[in-house]
Amino acid sequence: MLNIFLSIKLSLEVMLKRVFDVKSQKGVTMIEYALIASLIAVAVIVILTTTGSNLKNVFSYVSSQLTTP
How far apart are CA 11 and CA 17, in angstroms? Predict the structure, then answer.
């Protein structure tokens, strides 16, 4: 998974340098950090959504077992 992120980062950096002819590394670094932060945010959202669904199922099962005599 990390290899995919690194390859995306490198390809975006090369693309940005070619398209915008970036002379300063500060702009490229800021864009890289923004991309990494957005990828982390997406991963966290996916993990929390999955965990939330699983927890909902667990609590529903426990609730149904408690109410059933």
Answer: 10
Whether 55 contacts 47, CB under 8 Å:
no
Structure tokens given for 53: 């669904």
How confident is the model over 7-44, as pLDDT tens digits? 777 777 776 666 666 555 666 778 888 888 888 999 99
The answer to whether 5 and 39 have CB atoms below 8 angstroms apart is: yes
Whose CA is closest to 35, among 55, 56, 8?
8
Q: How far apart are CA 25 and CA 17, in angstroms?
A: 10
Cα four-point dihedral sign 10, 16, 18, 19: positive
Tell me the C-alpha distance between 55 and 57, whole Å.
Answer: 5
Separation of alpha carbons 19 and 27, rounded Å: 13
